Amino acid sequence: MQVEWDWGRVAQTFQWQLAGSLTGKVLVGIALLCLVGIIAGVRASSWLRQPHETRERQMVLPRLIGIVLLCDLGDWTLLRALPWLRLSFSTQIALPLIVAALVRLALLWGWAIAALILRWWQRRHGTPARDRPLVLAFLVVNLSFSAIQAYAYVAEPLLVETTELSLAFEDLSSAAPPVRVVHLTDIHIERNSYREATVIRRVNALQPDLIVLSGDYLNLSRLHDPVSAAHFRELVGQLRAPYGIYAVRGSVEPTIDSMAWLAEGTDLVWLEQEAVTVDVRGQSVTLLGVACSHQEPLDARRLAQTAQGVPADAFTLLLYHSPDLIREAAAGQIDLYLGGHTHGGQLRLPILGPIYTGSKYGSKYASGLFQEGSTRMVISRGIGMEGSNMPRARFLCRPEIVSIELKGTGD
Length: 411
Known about the structure:
Layout: H1 7-18, H2 22-48, H3 52-81, H4 94-125, H5 132-155, E1 161-173, E2 179-184, H6 194-205, E3 210-213, H7 226-237, E4 245-247, H8 256-262, E5 268-270, E6 274-280, E7 283-289, H9 296-307, E8 315-319, H10 326-331, E9 336-339, E10 348-349, E11 353-354, E12 368-372, E13 375-379, E14 400-410
Parallel strand pairs: 1-14, 2-3, 3-4, 4-5, 7-8, 8-9, 9-13
Antiparallel strand pairs: 2-14, 6-7, 10-11, 12-13
Helix pairs in contact: 1-2, 3-4, 3-5, 4-5
């Protein structure tokens, strides 16, 4: 006669009798661990009796999953370490983690397709299947992606470059000495870090006559953070320019009142649809400051209103946050147009270039020196990085200080 056990009732009775005391709970735990150990041991013994090639094949998927999980843990550790390293101060790491996980999932699918193709080729040619090289290749590719992430998050944001240009204009006098203008944009401060310290040191070493700022001073995640605002004031307070520091609103600064709050206690001069002429050792530089609303008709009208009354032979330097007014500036015969907003793409791919620039012109004016008619435009890659849940990373797009020597060729 075969006896059938009701294992659910047996377990319930056993737990009822022992779970009333701490000792009973410990014994239940030990019993369960022993049961799991016995099952695992039997399964391992059965697995070890299989041929070596079979065992190797069965271990491929667990190894791949292990590699992915370890790399995901590394990604999480890297992002959590950035504030401690004073490189980035974001607490929103979910989206970068999801993106990294999706990339690794795509790598896993790519590996699976490559493995299927290789197996087909090996069977067709009668060669033995070898999985270890494929696993090693998958490991190398994932570690390479981890290294790229570490570089983009840790190294490149600190590698501030100085771009020095020398431009000649007929509307400047050849009899007066050149004017050195340093342009900063998209600072996006969360907290002052090694990057901002480098910017201060580099800018002051250039000994500029004028410093101009073209918007986006606080990180999008810190627009109303008094600590971030104080750190911005600290940065501006350490910049030196004998003929002044001028700034316009970018796309993250909502109102002129917030600008007044942001610059409180500094020598920063806000230009809000204003034209100001600065005499620098005999050179007259007319600064046109236009706030950015990303509403093209509105901003075009603002530019036209700001330029009204400016003499046709005056040297005009337009400060506007993005490159999107280049055609209007060229139509108005602006001499020099300085902007940013694009971050140069911030994350660039080899050959393909910027992933996203935020400009209506796409990557056409991502960064660099451009000419439209008689107007020359310099778009900077900026200093900081996007906020909110976007990755605080740069890749193939280093932070940039732009220094321009303005020389005259006119009378």
